[in-house]
Write a structure and sequence with these properties.
The chain has about 110 residues and is mainly alpha-helical. Helices cover about 80% and strands about 0% of the residues.
Length: about 110
């Protein structure tokens, strides 16, 4: 079955939301304590499914390499920020510098992808 191609702006929006849900399931894994806590585990799995579905919709339009890199990058950035806020993880200069490089890379991919 052939699915309709999304317009580019919609694909980018879905990809951004998918990246946020990726961060949701990464943080959810911490709260699920190795999937031993039922509610956090259910929320984690729901976030995984939503993230993957939105990624799959976005890459119908966007190049797969770009989509995957941006999805992962958004998830990484959001996970690091949430780790700093929720778990008091390190926020030293080099860590923030390299996260900034990931943001620059995502922005670059957005600019050069039609």
């Amino acid at each position: 079955m052939k699915y309709p191609v999304l317009n580019t702006n919609t694909a980018w929006l879905l990809l951004f939301i998918a990246g946020l849900f990726e961060a949701g399931w990464v943080i959810g894994m911490k709260y699920s304590d190795g999937f031993t806590r039922i509610i956090p585990s259910i929320i984690t799995v729901i976030c995984m499914v939503i993230s993957m579905l939105l990624l799959s919709y976005a890459v119908r339009t966007l190049p797969i390499g770009t989509g995957y890199a941006v999805w992962t990058g958004i998830g990484v950035i959001a996970s690091v920020i949430l780790g700093i806020i929720l778990f008091k993880e390190e926020k030293d200069f080099l860590r923030l510098f390299f996260i900034t490089l990931i943001m620059i890379g995502i922005t670059g991919l957005k600019v050069v992808t039609k």
